[in-house]
């Protein structure tokens, strides 16, 4: 038995020849046009019975809210894995950027990639539309296949690609996303800077876990229980009609481990981190878009929220975000899109926050990251110096830690210094004693200033004087080095002069166009 397709293949040359003859000028003259038209239309009808019409699905880079379209991203990643083993395309891109270990292969526009999946022939093509100034206006993928396979393609094939993408995102560990502002345009209005912004990511190479974190043990346990409960309560959230999300406020001085705690949470939950710094001039609309472009099972970190939230709504620039815009992210309707989401706010100074941000129900858990305690110190010493059990200097260190405020970051810095355990711990003692001396100087100075009725920040003054002392010591050291035979003083002076000129130029450029500063 012949199949239709086989019959078509064998008869096609005869029909084609017949139509060519009918259409040739000589034959056309001999037969009436009505007859030749009829023959051609019959031929087309016959042809359409055997050739299958194509369907094309358009997958745009940005969704309706100008947020990134996950299918587009998944398809780009998927296509790049196909390139090395595909006969098509003939052109493709290859890249390796700073922090990446591997080469990344990517498709280029207008090159076809052909895939056969479950017997369906699929043709992929990337389209890039550019403006007169070569700026990219639009990017989309076209996926074409035979009509009749719509369900298989939409429900199985594309679904599989997205699933594969999500798995691969977590496969290499937690990813850290940060905001890339997109191309800088001089014509852009001075308000929003995020119009073309998108998230860019790297794998988070932070091996911190809760176990390695120096913080109050009870608080640590409470936090881990809270995260476990959150993960296991999908049904409860659904039953009570609450969005499956949780908010944490981490507050405490610089270097007490807020960022480390976020990394530990992400490693614990295997959630990606989206890191947003509010100093990036976002409008309310930007914030909504940014929120919508984050994925489920992720932690959205809003760092130093006091910097963004200290201005009230009236005093803000015209299209900069407002406090209510920020609150909408936490508990407004927009925040109910997606599930299994965590929002973390960090601040060095909780008192600076607008009370609206602290109202009950806004942030579910407040975590205070404090200065180093003896328990925290012992934990760090065990990790950094591999000390098992007790050490003779612990009592002295405990006494000193009760008296001065040092951050775990400062202690970590001391513990990283070279030398054996005893040398390093003695270094810690010296460091703490120095801080103790500074503290008593500040207390003494404060007393003096008070008695003279002078209102200045005594600690700041002591710190300033210590800094000056340090600088003076450095200057003496430079002088000593210059006098030694190894250093060519003239070369050095030339270099410093040159640097001064460059710094001045950079400062001037920044003054003329502040938007063209960093990045
Ligand atoms: N509680 C901690 N436990 C263990 N290590 C810590 C802790 N706090 C700080 N460190 C060490 O100090 C470094 C800096 O700390 P981290 O960036 O987490 O502090 P932070 O509170 O987020 O500071 P900032 O407010 O400046 O961002 C960390 O990489 C880590 O090595």
Automatic annotation (TrEMBL):
<dbReference type="InterPro" id="IPR050747">
    <property type="entry name" value="Mitochondrial_chaperone_BCS1"/>
</dbReference>
<dbReference type="GO" id="GO:0005524">
    <property type="term" value="F:ATP binding"/>
</dbReference>
<keyword id="KW-0460">Magnesium</keyword>
<dbReference type="InterPro" id="IPR027417">
    <property type="entry name" value="P-loop_NTPase"/>
</dbReference>
<dbReference type="InterPro" id="IPR003593">
    <property type="entry name" value="AAA+_ATPase"/>
</dbReference>
<dbReference type="Pfam" id="PF00004">
    <property type="entry name" value="AAA"/>
</dbReference>
<keyword id="KW-0378">Hydrolase</keyword>
<dbReference type="InterPro" id="IPR003959">
    <property type="entry name" value="ATPase_AAA_core"/>
</dbReference>
<dbReference type="InterPro" id="IPR058017">
    <property type="entry name" value="At3g28540-like_C"/>
</dbReference>
<dbReference type="InterPro" id="IPR025753">
    <property type="entry name" value="AAA_N_dom"/>
</dbReference>
<dbReference type="Pfam" id="PF14363">
    <property type="entry name" value="AAA_assoc"/>
</dbReference>
<protein>
    <recommendedName>
        <fullName>AAA+ ATPase domain-containing protein</fullName>
    </recommendedName>
</protein>
<dbReference type="GO" id="GO:0006950">
    <property type="term" value="P:response to stress"/>
</dbReference>
<keyword id="KW-0067">ATP-binding</keyword>
<dbReference type="InterPro" id="IPR003960">
    <property type="entry name" value="ATPase_AAA_CS"/>
</dbReference>
<comment type="similarity">
    <text>Belongs to the AAA ATPase family. BCS1 subfamily.</text>
</comment>
<dbReference type="Pfam" id="PF25568">
    <property type="entry name" value="AAA_lid_At3g28540"/>
</dbReference>
<feature type="domain" description="AAA+ ATPase">
    <location>
        <begin position="244"/>
        <end position="373"/>
    </location>
</feature>
<dbReference type="GO" id="GO:0016887">
    <property type="term" value="F:ATP hydrolysis activity"/>
</dbReference>
<keyword id="KW-0547">Nucleotide-binding</keyword>
């Amino acid at each position: 038995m012949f199949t239709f397709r086989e019959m078509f293949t064998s008869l096609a040359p005869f029909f084609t020849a017949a139509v060519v003859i009918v259409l040739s000028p000589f034959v056309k003259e001999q037969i009436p046009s009505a007859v030749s038209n009829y023959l051609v239309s019959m031929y087309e009808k016959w042809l359409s019975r055997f050739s299958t019409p194509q369907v094309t699905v358009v997958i745009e880079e940005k969704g309706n809210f100008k947020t990134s379209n996950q299918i587009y991203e998944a398809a780009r990643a998927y296509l790049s894995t196909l390139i090395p083993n595909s006969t098509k395309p003939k052109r493709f891109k290859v890249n390796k950027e700073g922090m990446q270990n591997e080469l990344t292969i990517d498709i280029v526009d207008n090159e076809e990639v052909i895939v056969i999946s479950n017997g369906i022939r699929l043709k992929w093509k990337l389209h890039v539309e550019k403006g007169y100034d070569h700026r990219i206006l639009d990017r989309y993928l076209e996926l074409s296949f035979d009509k009749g396979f719509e369900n298989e393609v939409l429900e199985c094939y594309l679904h599989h690609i997205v699933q594969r993408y999500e798995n691969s995102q977590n496969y290499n560990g937690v990813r850290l996303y940060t905001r890339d502002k997109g191309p800088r345009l001089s014509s852009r209005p001075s308000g929003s800077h995020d119009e073309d912004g998108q998230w860019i990511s790297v794998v988070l190479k932070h091996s911190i876990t809760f176990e390695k974190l120096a913080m109050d043990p009870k608080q640590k346990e409470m936090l881990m229980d809270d995260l476990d409960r959150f993960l296991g309560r999908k049904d409860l959230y659904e039953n009570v009609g609450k969005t499956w999300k949780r908010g944490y406020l981490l507050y405490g001085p610089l270097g007490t481990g807020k960022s480390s705690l976020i990394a530990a949470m992400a490693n614990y939950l295997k959630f990606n981190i989206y890191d947003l710094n509010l100093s990036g001039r976002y409008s309310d609309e930007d914030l909504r878009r940014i929120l919508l472009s984050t994925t489920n099972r992720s932690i959205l970190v809003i760092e130093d929220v006091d910097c963004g939230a200290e201005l009230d709504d009236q005093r803000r620039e015209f299209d900069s975000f407002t406090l209510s815009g920020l609150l909408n992210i936490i508990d407004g309707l927009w925040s109910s899109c997606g599930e299994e989401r965590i929002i973390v706010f960090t601040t060095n100074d909780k008192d600076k926050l607008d009370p609206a941000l602290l109202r009950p129900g806004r942030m579910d858990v407040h975590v205070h990251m404090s200065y180093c305690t003896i328990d925290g110190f012992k934990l760090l010493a065990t990790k950094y110096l591999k000390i098992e059990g007790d050490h003779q200097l612990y009592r002295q260190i405990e006494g000193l830690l009760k008296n001065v405020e040092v951050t775990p970051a400062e202690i970590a810095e001391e513990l990283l210094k070279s030398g054996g355990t005893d040398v390093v711990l003695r270094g810690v003692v010296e460091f703490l004693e120095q801080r103790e001396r500074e503290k008593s100087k500040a207390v003494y100075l404060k007393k003096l200033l008070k008695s003279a009725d002078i209102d200045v920040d005594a600690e700041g003054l002591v710190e300033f004087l210590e800094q000056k002392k340090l600088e003076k010591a450095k200057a003496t050291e430079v002088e000593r080095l210059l006098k030694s035979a190894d250093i060519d003083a003239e070369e050095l002076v030339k270099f410093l002069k040159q640097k001064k000129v460059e710094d001045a130029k950079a400062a001037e450029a920044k003054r003329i166009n502040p938007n063209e500063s960093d990045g």
